[in-house]
From TrEMBL:
Keyword Transferase among UniProt keywords: yes
Keyword Transferase among UniProt keywords: yes
Matches recorded under SUPFAM superfamilies: S-adenosyl-L-methionine-dependent methyltransferases (SSF53335)
Organism annotation: Natronomicrosphaera hydrolytica
GO molecular function, one term: methyltransferase activity
Organism placement in taxonomy: Bacteria, Pseudomonadati, Planctomycetota, Phycisphaerae, Phycisphaerales
Protein name: Class I SAM-dependent methyltransferase
Length: 262
């Protein structure tokens, strides 16, 4: 059985970027459509919490948005800075946590599509994040938030696989999630990267814990932040013309939250 080196995949931003870059244009198309439908414009001042490698910042910046982003990972921020430079995009980057950030300026839009929200380990931190997002948006501003809901009755493991290649570097990513602990509201997740480059194969493994939300638990959290109004729900197909219901049984959700006036 192959051996995997314990690692933090946020410390290998190139491999992370290779895996997720394929969907960048489609996600940017979706975000701009959501911004226009629910916020009144396709471009504006945009904030990305947990901006990672900056792929969406660079893409939206090329399309005319004024982009800012923050992340807790310095390697990710350094990579993002290079990506913005390569795209000739003058974005703003800073290090901050999801539940501990502040901007003086106000944004028209914000987005966080890839379940990073689930790293917030308790209800207080999740609420702090949403409240800070509301304060960071102008009245009528839109926050697009993607996350996986949890079916506590499903006792099987889930698996996802991505494959990417760039400049002679091949990356295979396998992510496995174990059944959620209903009492602790926690789920163990593991990623394994197999990287082939320069004639060598390297294997990395990262493990983490996500906080879990059923539909009811998510609705309760959203109700505790009345400055944000839940105005629409989509799935991970990112098709702005295909609205779904939060309670339809599908677990992959994208919420459109709008800052209330006042």
């Amino acid at each position: 059985m192959p051996t995997y080196e314990p690692s933090d995949w946020y410390r290998t931003p190139l491999y992370y970027d290779i895996i997720f870059d394929e969907g960048t244009r489609r996600e940017a198309d979706f975000l701009q459509a959501v911004f226009e439908w629910y916020g009144g414009a396709a471009v504006g001042r945009v904030l990305e919490p947990a901006c990672g490698t900056g792929r969406l910042m660079a893409e939206l910046g090329r399309r005319g948005c004024e982009v800012s982003g923050f992340d807790v990972s310095l390697p990710m921020l350094e990579f993002a800075g290079g990506r913005l430079d390569d795209a000739n995009v003058a974005g703003e980057l800073k290090q901050a946590r999801l539940e501990r950030f502040h901007y003086r300026k106000r944004f028209d839009f914000a987005h966080c599509l890839v379940s990073t929200f689930l790293y917030l380990a308790d209800e207080a931190a999740a609420r702090d994040h949403l409240q800070r997002m509301a304060r960071s948006l102008r009245p009528g501003g839109v926050y697009v938030l993607g996350l996986h809901l949890t079916d506590y009755d499903d006792r099987g493991r889930t698996r996802e696989r991505w494959v990417g290649q760039r400049d002679g570097v091949d990356v295979v990513c396998n992510v496995q999630a174990w059944p959620a602990d209903r009492r602790k509201r926690a789920q163990q997740v593991r990623s394994r990267l197999v990287v082939q480059a320069d004639g060598a194969t390297r294997r990395y493994q990262t493990q983490w814990t996500f906080r879990t939300y059923s539909e009811r638990q998510l609705r309760r959290l959203l109700a505790s932040v009345p400055t944000l109004e839940h105005v629409a729900t989509y799935n991970f197909h990112h098709d702005v013309e295909q609205l779904v219901s939060l309670g339809d049984g599908e677990l992959d959700k994208v919420l459109v939250l709008r800052r209330r006036d006042g």
